[in-house]
Design brief:
236 residues, mainly alpha, cell membrane, Outer membrane transport energization protein ExbB
Length: 236
């Protein structure tokens, strides 16, 4: 009898598990749908927040690949230029800089075109070209900083609108229940979370690109100093 009871208990447990598995799958599917629908419940404030997200992603990757290309360092460039200059082949050195298609190459090319003039003039030409190259690298990076500040503010606006919605529904219905305040709470929490999340991403992206630009600037300054020393070397 005891064995029969144990067998019946196991069979009932197996049936319960079989019935529970499909239900759990349905619950999981509903939760996935709810996650997507929550974003819609954030209201119209989610539209500008979404635009900031796409704008930030575009700017980050566009600048990332541009700066990465500019950071491509050719170790033999300065050495080859030195060989051309010492051999008196300025045209070959200028062509080499032009073919490098890098910020440092364009800076050195500007200096080579000024050879024969005082060193101060050459340094000024290289410095001005360097400022222009840095300006190109930093293009639109500041927009990420703006997004990092605006996105949380938009989330805060959504929070205020959600609170207003809650009190309006309560005053309109005269009831204080979960159904009455749920829509306002959805908008309040979703917009706040979305704004903070996008703001954090933009903040991180801004600092990553800034560090990359600083690294390129350091290399440009090092190579320009080596180039000026190269021009002064024959006169020593």
């Amino acid at each position: 009898m005891l064995l029969l009871q144990i067998g019946d208990t196991l069979n009932q447990a197996a049936d319960t598990l079989q019935q529970a598995l499909p239900q759990n799958s349905v619950i999981a599917a509903e939760q996935k749908v709810n996650i997507l629908s929550l974003l819609i419940k954030g209201g119209w404030v989610m539209l500008p927040i979404a635009l900031l997200l796409f704008l930030g992603i575009y700017i980050f990757f566009e600048r990332y690949f541009t700066i990465r290309k500019a950071a491509r360092y050719e170790a033999n460039l300065t050495m080859q230029i030195k060989q051309y200059v010492l051999a008196g082949n300025l045209d070959g050195a200028i062509a080499l800089c032009r073919n490098s298609a890098t910020p440092i190459g364009r800076m050195l090319q500007k200096g080579l075109l000024r050879i024969g003039k005082p060193i101060k003039d050459i340094e000024g030409a290289i410095e001005n070209q360097g400022k222009l190259e840095v300006s190109k690298l930093e293009k639109n990076i500041s927009i990420l900083g703006i997004i990092a500040g605006i996105a949380p503010m938009l989330g805060f606006i959504g929070t205020i609108i959600g609170v207003i919605t809650i009190f309006y529904d309560i005053s309109a219905t005269g009831e204080y229940s979960i159904d009455t305040v749920s829509s306002g709470l959805y908008q309040k929490m979703i917009t706040s979370a979305a704004g903070l999340f996008i703001g954090i991403l933009a903040y991180i992206g801004h600092h990553i690109l800034t560090m990359m630009v600083d690294k390129v600037i350091l290399q440009m300054e090092t190579d320009s100093i080596d180039f000026i020393d190269l021009l002064e070397e024959p006169t020593k």
